Amino acid sequence: MAPSERLALLLLATCTILARASGDNGKIVNGTTAAPGELPFVVSLRRSKSGHHSCGATLLNSDWILTAAHCVRSSSPEQLDLQYGSQSLARNSSQLVRVAAIFVHPGYEPQDKYVNDIALLQLAQSVTLTKRVQPVRLPEPHQVTPGNASAVLAGWGLNATGGLVQRDLQKVQLQVFSDAECSERHQTQLHGTQICAGLPEGGKGQCSGDSGGPLLLTGTDTQVGIVSWSIKPCARPPFPGVFTEVSAYVDWIVETVGSSKTPSSLWVGQLIVGRSPPGLTS
């Protein structure tokens, strides 16, 4: 074998070993594909002109969406739309809805560790609730999510830094860290309205494109977090992902939705807040 051929084989083998070691063949990072209809409240926030997935989001009811402020702050309503009712992204999906208004939390400050990274989108048309289009449950106001709690992250984000947006919705099981451990791992004092989730050893968690999507208490449809930011490369130890803590903003969500001309119900804890419970059609 010629020296040039031996060099080529050596380089190929090295690249293959590095690719396997990097974990880039995982999903969301290193998650699994959600079953059809398993997470009927997760929707894709898209750029309306291109149809490209931009961020994750969740359905609060037929008329309102919850997402991260940094996903929408620089956008106008006509630049956005949402794909709902399907866990597979499709640029030409028939299940799209336009955005009528954007409500970014007035205290959002990206220069201060993305504090108050939360926004509401009012839809231009009501979506019909079905078995695969359902509202997410909000936690009780100021409900504490304990450290070491088990949680599930869902999204279509990159499977690794520099990776690909996933066509099918991914989910991954994570551990919630206490506020003290979260700040210690990030070597900075995070805000009390933020929570962290990941694994102590890293290797699983959020990546670009997961922003705005939900962190849910395992075995429930209660959303305790909104994907806000993380240290790159994605899922790098010892840094867990940082989420906006939804329970700190339930009052703001209820007030904002209730102040619209057509107030609608929200699912908060065990209660329905509003005029009527979320409906269901076949």
What does this structure look like?
GO terms for molecular function: serine-type endopeptidase activity. It comes from Drosophila gunungcola. Residues 1-23 form the signal peptide. Residues 28-258 form the Peptidase S1 domain. Keywords: Disulfide bond, Hydrolase, Protease, Secreted, Serine protease, Signal, Zymogen. The chain is of the alpha+beta class and 282 residues long. It has four helices and 15 strands. It has helices spanning 3-22, 69-72, 179-186, 250-258; strands spanning 32-33, 42-47, 53-59, 64-67, 80-83, 96-104, 119-123, 150-155, 170-177, 194-198, 214-217, 223-229, 241-245, 266-268, 271-273. The strands form three sheets. A six-stranded antiparallel beta barrel has the order 8-9-10-13-12-11. It has a six-stranded antiparallel β-barrel with strand order 2-3-4-7-6-5. Strand 11 (214-217) and strand 12 form a beta hairpin. The longest helix is centred in the N-terminal third of the chain and has 20 residues, at 3-22. The radius of gyration is 20 Å and the shape is globular. Residues 1-27 have low confidence and may be disordered.
The parts where pLDDT drops under 50 for at least 5 residues are 1-27
- Mean pLDDT score, rounded? 87
| Alpha-carbon Rg, integer | 20 Å
End-to-end C-alpha gap: 67 Å
Strand-pairing-aware structural class:
alpha+beta
Q: Write the H/E string, N to C.
A: HEEEEHEEEEEHEEEEHEE
Instruction: Describe the sheet with the most strands.
Output: 6 strands, antiparallel, barrel
User: How much of the sequence is in beta strands?
Assistant: 25-35%
Q: What count of helical segments does DSSP give? A: 4
The outline comes out as globular
Q: Helical residue percent? A: 10-25%
